[in-house]
Amino acid sequence: xxxxxxxxxxxxxxxxxxxxxxxxxxxxxxxxxxxxxxxxx
Length: 41
Known about the structure:
The chain contains three helices and no strands. The mean pLDDT is about 75. By secondary structure, it is mainly alpha-helical.
């Protein structure tokens, strides 16, 4: 397995994915797409 050979894991990718998912859930209240983009930064 490459995880043990190269000491890699998907923790960073999963953490970033979690942040995006939270942002998408939070965005349900936005009516303005530009404001959603601004808050994402």
